[in-house]
């Protein structure tokens, strides 16, 4: 979500450029996790209008959503609950969580439809970790319950998940954007009321065949497990950085970063 002052600034900028419906720079109120949020739109329908705007302004408008000093308060590891899913590609986030250097020091408790823990020594603020104990397509319910209870806004949430569109050995820090057909992200967006949250994606590659569901629900091969064992420590270091500093500062380095060939 954006501060009202920032959005007003964008409104004044938009007013200086030609639009299909001159003089129609409106604000639209939409529901979110904690109520209404403000977005700048142009046009009578209240829909975002990009036509006629210079690329530099478009980029500025998009980037405003994470220009504030934002610290991560919740890291949620998306996956399917159940022993039969533990070693599958869809549960790479849980496997990463278990590999973290501080994993054994966390006091996990069962609440918010999952397992959660808190840490006060990983950054300037308390950080919550969450493993939703739901199926992937309902994991947003767990994320939303914890976020509401501790009053954590979506922009302070980092979801860790598998990514079909990235090859194995590649990781990527991403802010907002599309959901890529990922059911866990869809669920989170539906519950939070926005896709404006952080994602840390582990590439699992797309299969050559059409059975994507069977692919993500199957276990990693021996070679893929070797890759994971080598990229998890580097990924843990990135996560540690993201918890200590503003995550947007890491975007240039960790956008589709290839850790292994």
UniProtKB/TrEMBL annotation:
Keyword vocabulary terms for this entry: Cytoplasm, Hydrolase, RNA-binding, tRNA-binding
Pfam families: Pept_tRNA_hydro
Annotated site (Discriminates between blocked and unblocked aminoacyl-tRNA): 80
Enzyme Commission code(s) on record: 3.1.1.29
A cellular component annotation (GO) from this entry: cytoplasm
Chief location category: cytoplasm
Biological process, per Gene Ontology: protein quality control for misfolded or incompletely synthesized proteins; rescue of stalled ribosome
Residue sites binding tRNA per the record: 85, 135, 137, 183
Active site: 90
Coiled coil: none
Biological function: Catalyzes the release of premature peptidyl moieties from peptidyl-tRNA molecules trapped in stalled 50S ribosomal subunits, and thus maintains levels of free tRNAs and 50S ribosomes. Hydrolyzes ribosome-free peptidyl-tRNAs (with 1 or more amino acids incorporated), which drop off the ribosome during protein synthesis, or as a result of ribosome stalling.
Subunit and partners: Monomer.
Cited PANTHER family: PEPTIDYL-TRNA HYDROLASE
This protein's name: Peptidyl-tRNA hydrolase
UniProt source species: Treponema brennaborense (strain DSM 12168 / CIP 105900 / DD5/3)
